[in-house]
Specification:
Elements lengths: L1 H8 L4 H10 L10 H7 L4 H7 L9 E5 L5 H8 L3 E6 L2 H9 L3 E4 L13 E11 H6 L4 H11 E9 L2 E5 L2 E3 L4 H8 L1 H8 L3 E3 L13 E5 L1
Parallel strand pairs: 1-2, 1-4, 2-3, 4-5
Antiparallel strand pairs: 5-9, 6-7, 8-9
The structure holds S-adenosylmethionine.
Length: 217
């Protein structure tokens, strides 16, 4: 499917891409999160300005692992960075490339990941699901090792599985879920690999994005 679709969307503008996704039953949502992001999520430019406030991105290289609609990329570029992203979703890839960001089409859960060069800062927000990685015994050390080879600074803000509704949200990394998170292999892999932990006001919320992991070489 991806091959034919890739061909179909290759010359589309972002408006045409959204119109196309809108016209398809299901909006390709089983494969791509682009439609949901465009239709349901508010822009996050202020969020990324806050996240990057301690980084000087001028003339630096920035890589987002799984950028969604690319707000982090837009903000990093405004701050002077050269912007690249990795994604396996052809709609996300096309959308962010149309905005002028450099795309690398690969699946970062297919290990080993090839060498894609070295960057000043890597960000992963919402693209690693700690619960899912724990459940599937994902070889997180390999992914962490690849990130450390790939960037001087790393920020990872993982998410957690959807569960019962808490405070009207369907992500519930509270109570026993948060305890499980803190005891999990994936959490300890970050800690033991030298990542520091922060809970940043305005960046982490206790339900869905409980912890920011940061690494500097
Ligand atoms: C939940 S969205 C998060 C988007 C954005 N980072 C944010 O926080 O708003 C997950 C992103 O990671 C990408 N992604 C998820 N798993 C991936 C994988 N195994 N390889 C490459 N990209 C992946 C998705 O296509 C999407 O762009």
């Amino acid at each position: 499917m991806a091959g034919n679709l890739e061909d179909k969307i290759k010359d589309m503008t972002n408006t045409e891409l959204l119109d196309y996704l809108h016209s398809v039953p299901g909006h390709h949502s089983d494969y791509s999160s682009l439609y949901t992001y465009l239709v349901k999520h508010a822009p996050m430019n202020d969020y990324y300005k806050l996240l990057f406030k301690d980084f000087d991105l001028k003339h630096k290289s920035f890589l987002d692992l799984g950028p969604g609609v690319g707000w982090s990329l837009d903000v990093a570029r405004e701050l002077g960075a050269r912007t690249t992203f990795v994604d396996r979703d052809i709609f996300i890839t096309k959308y962010c490339e149309n905005k002028g960001h450099k795309g690398i089409h690969l699946d970062f859960f297919q290990l080993p990941i090839k060498n894609i060069g070295r960057y000043d800062l890597i960000l992963s927000r919402g693209s690693f699901n700690v619960d899912m990685m724990n459940r599937t015994n994902f070889p997180i050390h390999q992914l962490i090792g690849w990130m450390i080879l790939t960037a001087r600074n790393i920020i990872v803000i993982p998410t957690w599985d959807k569960g019962e509704l808490v405070e009207g949200e369907d992500y519930t990394c509270v109570g026993e879920h948060f305890e499980n998170y803190l005891n999990s292999e994936v959490h300890w892999a970050f800690v033991n690999s030298g990542f520091s932990l922060r809970i940043i006001e305005g960046i982490n919320d206790h339900l869905r994005f409980p912890i920011t992991y940061e690494y500097t070489t």
